[in-house]
Design goal:
elongated; single chain
């Protein structure tokens, strides 16, 4: 019985996460209501608390569920890159193996990004250049980060991610760089890089904020359109009723006039 309930809940979550982007909240709330009606209050509370994915995370989830071949290659390439990195650190693998693994992972990310762009376009959720770049970073994180990979495999991503560890290119470029004597100007260059990283982080945070604002505005617009459609229907019905009543009143007045004149 418990297993059946769990499967029904999982199937419901698949429908929530993999349906159209705009309908996420409505599907989530409907599932929570159904679970509560079935007597599973804890599951209902957990579902009700689910956060709506960002537009880019939603796009990656669609790929996770539908991009079988490219999805599997991304996961395999990530596993090879992690293995090569560990081998490089332990001395069991060489730089060439690391480079091959890095190149395979980059190619897999590129193929996955193309598939995601196509899926998003078909769903009317075209990705602009900034969104595509966020998807690329998330795909690198899928390949390299265990927690992100788990969310991806379940098609349950809710936010964009940055690859850590291997993603910056240190190990991916062939192992830890050898220390060299610091030259004059190195500290200025390091400071410029630090400021650049901070600016990028601020810009990415702002982009994520603007995405959330866009999603809220689109939701508000959708609700306003629904309200306008309902109002238009009410207006049409009221107009028809008024015209019918006017015609009836005219006929009644004419009858009165005819009777008086007779």
């Amino acid at each position: 019985m418990a297993a059946r309930k769990r499967k029904r809940s999982d199937d419901g979550l698949d429908a929530v996460y993999l349906g159209d982007f705009e309908g996420f909240v409505a599907r989530r709330d409907a599932l929570a209501k159904q679970l509560r009606a079935d007597g599973d209050g804890d599951a209902a509370d957990a579902v009700k608390a689910l956060k709506k994915p960002s537009r880019t995370a939603w796009s990656v989830n669609q790929f996770a569920a539908r991009g079988a071949k490219a999805r599997d290659e991304l996961l395999k390439a990530g596993a090879q890159l992690r293995e090569a990195s560990e081998g490089l650190v332990s001395g069991e693998a060489d730089r060439e193996a690391m480079i091959r693994a890095r190149d395979r992972e980059r190619a897999a990310v590129g193929s996955a990004l193309e598939a995601i762009t196509a899926l998003a376009g078909d769903a009317g959720q075209a990705l602009n250049s900034a969104a595509s770049e966020r998807v690329r970073h998330t795909l690198h994180a899928v390949a390299l980060d265990e927690e992100v990979r788990g969310q991806f495999e379940a098609a349950r991503l809710t936010a964009d991610h940055e690859a850590s560890g291997l993603g910056g290119g240190g190990l991916a470029a062939g192992g830890p760089a050898k220390r060299r004597p610091q030259k004059k100007g190195d500290s200025k260059q390091a400071e410029r890089k630090r400021r650049r990283r901070e600016q990028l982080k601020t810009a990415e945070a702002d982009a994520a904020k603007r995405d959330r604002e866009l999603e809220a505005a689109e939701l508000e617009l959708t609700e306003a359109k629904k309200a306008a459609k309902r109002a238009q229907g009410d207006l049409k019905r009221a107009t028809a009723g008024q015209q019918k009543a006017k015609a009836a009143a005219g006929q009644a007045s004419k009858r009165v006039a005819d009777l008086r004149s007779g």
